[in-house]
Amino acid sequence: MGFSAFRILKEGLTGNTGWRPHWRDPEPRADYDIVIIGGGGHGLATAFYLAKEHGLTNVAVLEKGYLGGGNVGRNTTIVRANYCLPGNSQFYSHSLKLWEGMEQELNFNTMMSQRGVINLFHSDGQRDHAARRGNAMAIQGDDAILLDRTQIRERLPFLDHDNGRFPIYGGLYHPRGGTARHDAVAWGYARAADSRGVDLIQNCEVTGIDIENGRVTGVQTTRGAIRARKVGIVVAGRSSQVAAMAGMRLPIESHVLQAFVTEGLKPCLDHVVTFGMGHFYISQSDKGGLVFGGDLDFYASYAARGNLPGAEHVMEAACTLMPSITKARVLRSWGGIMDMTPDGSPIIDHSGIEGLYLNCGWCYGGFKAVPGSGFSFAHLIATDSHHAPAARFRLDRFTTGRGLMDEEGTGAQHNLH
What residues have CB less than 8 Å from 157, skipping those under 6 apart? Predict the structure, then answer.
């Protein structure tokens, strides 16, 4: 089913009776070439690119709940490519290019808004780091503009620029960054994959992974056994639990990350803004709500909810950076389960078991990575070779110590990334 201005006008004039379901609700078949465990953004994008780029349509996506009900619907919707280190830089640059063509490719409005991302800095050292990061982005081919104190004040007059502890020295501006509608991204990939013949199977929890003689042969689910020649695990914060079904112990801890949204306000915030002296980020949605978040809650958990000390920490950072936010009422909050690796960078690799592949460890970067992750994971599953932009996301870097990508310089401690 395609969308167009004519179609919307026609349906509006005829009582919206011509719309059809966006995707089928098939019964699982007994055998597939490829099974993708996880019906979130990454899993659905993987299925779409398997069909579109590689012509592989005998594929099933298994989701224990409903499509898009996990982390892809529990984030702050930020899209950016402002990384510094080789490996991350190339990957997120590739992903941003896919974001920019996504709506045309999927024929679906994902509400992509390239409103720009501004990372504030508050010291000479942070300014030097921002300059290095901006240069790395420019060398990669992405956009980066270093703004001084006056330029930041002109763009963001409502911030506390002269805070006694954290005065604003300037910011690194990434114009092509922005936000998108998270659930629309999941729906867009779902309908596009379904239209190419992929089976999207909801309410189908994987309870076991079948392995014979070192090779995966299928999965056990709450809806029966399903045979498969290849299986991809892409389940975000549940990665360790699902991988354990195959006898694997991943270098991942799962932590809670909270996000918040206020009541609808008149347009006041044109960009995505991050606070350099506290892990705080904020933007304004199309409905007017201020969407913001901060640090992890710093305890391991599989519960998609946060705690009050974590909420208090985020609110303190919000009020320090933007005092006027104190007048806004918070409507709701939610939590996502972050799969944190020791170096803060993801894993897209073979598992060591023939036919079993891993896509996990996205830490804070899961949403903005959706198209790039799906494209690269599909390439790996289809060809058994690494896609160039994701070639450094190897599992063995945690065994050998070679190729670690510590983007934040915080060391090998999961909860600091």
Answer: none
Backbone φ and ψ of 172, nearest 5°: -100, 120
Residue 334 maps to which CATH number? 3.30.9.10
pLDDT of residue 315: 94
Final residue of a structural domain among 340, 355, 386: 340
Residue 417 has pLDDT above 80, yes or no: no
- Measured CA to CA, the distance from residue 296 to residue 139 in angstroms comes to 31
Q: Is residue 176 located within the same domain as residue 221?
A: no
Burial profile 357-370: b = 16 or more Cβ within 10 angstroms, e = fewer: bbbbbbbbbbbbbb
Are 144 and 259 within one domain? Answer: yes
pLDDT of residue 18: 87
Q: What is the pLDDT of residues 180-224, one digit of tens each?
A: 999 999 999 999 999 999 999 999 999 999 999 999 999 999 999
Residues in contact with 285: Cβ distance below 8 Å, sequence separation at least 6, in sequence order: 77, 179, 261, 291
pLDDT, mean over the chain: 95
Residue 9 lies inside a defined structural domain of this protein: no
Say if residue 379's pLDDT is above 90: yes
In the prediction, which pLDDT does 148 show? 97
| One domain for residues 194 and 267 | no
Q: Are residues 162 and 259 in the same domain?
A: yes
Torsion of CA 21, 23, 28, 33, to 10 degrees: 160
Q: Are 141 and 200 found together in one domain? A: no
Render 29-96 in DSSP notation, one character per residue: PSEEEEEEE--SHHHHHHHHHHHHHH----EEEE-SSSTT-SGGGSS--EE-----STTHHHHHHHHH
* Structural domains in the chain (count): 2
Is the same domain home to 360 and 390? yes
Q: Is the pTM of this model over 0.85?
A: yes
CB 71 within 8 A of CB 337: yes
Domain range for 389? 31-77+182-251+343-416
Domain boundary among 340, 361, 387: 340
Q: pLDDT tens-digit profile of 9-55?
A: 999 999 998 888 889 999 999 999 999 999 999 999 999 999 999 99
